[in-house]
Amino acid sequence: MISLSAIHKTFNKGEPNEVVALRDVSLALKPSEYLVVIGPNGSGKSTLLNVLAGSVLPSSGEIKIGAQNVTALPEYNRSKWVARIFQDPLKGTAPELSILDNFRLAALRTSAKTLKVGTTNTFKDAVKTQISQLGMGLENKVNQQMGTLSGGQRQALTLLMCVMDEAKILLLDEPTAALDPRSAELVLQTADKLIREHQLTALLITHQLKDAFRFGNRLIFMREGEISKDLDAGEKGRLSEEELYKWFM
Ligand SMILES: Nc1ncnc2c1ncn2[C@@H]1O[C@H](COP(=O)(O)OP(=O)(O)OP(=O)(O)O)[C@@H](O)[C@H]1O
Predict the structure, then answer these.
(1) pTM
(2) For the ABC transporter domain, which residue ranges apply (predicted)?
């Protein structure tokens, strides 16, 4: 269980450019919950995600992952619970290193128990087996530089590196914003498959309402720093496209 209790975030407090980004937001995420977050620009979606990741610390309120209070923990101290995919495919990986070395780095960073890190063929074979799940043929290119791959291929591999570790929550901040439609579809389908198979708790921010329909088992709508609608799987399933568009009016 991941819980945010009464989270408030004000940027530039006391300055002329003061902004209240989150107002008293409370949210509890159950294991295997795949939460989709939508809302107009500036409604606080990224701040909510950043507060969970630890890259933004709340002005007040409490964040717990399981029994652990992580409210004041910075991002680098949360990586054993939280994995993150950014909009920019270049952010998650080292372009000058091979696919295999990127997996080594990821495993070292997270001290994954599922894959023992090393220069041995055992590690290489384990990585190849993982990569073959993607169905992109990249298992035959593990010595190729990451920078030579397409944005979609890199996002898919970054997702895979995230689920190798013991992260309990996967944060996806518009992961397809920089991709062409075909690559975007591939990345979202890969994320969906991995979230189900690894029973991850996940949070996806998207501006694509069709994706908010198709993915996730819970949907929240943010407006002016608050959660103004919160639909469980059943309610989300009954939501019409027309209703969803009306929320933005
Ligand atoms: N680091 C920051 N410093 C100052 N203000 C910020 C900072 N980050 C966000 N804000 C402000 O907080 C408010 C919420 O921003 P946030 O990025 O969370 O919204 P969003 O819903 O993700 O928007 P978008 O859909 O445009 O990405 C905005 O008014 C934004 O300008």
Answers:
(1) 0.90
(2) 2-249
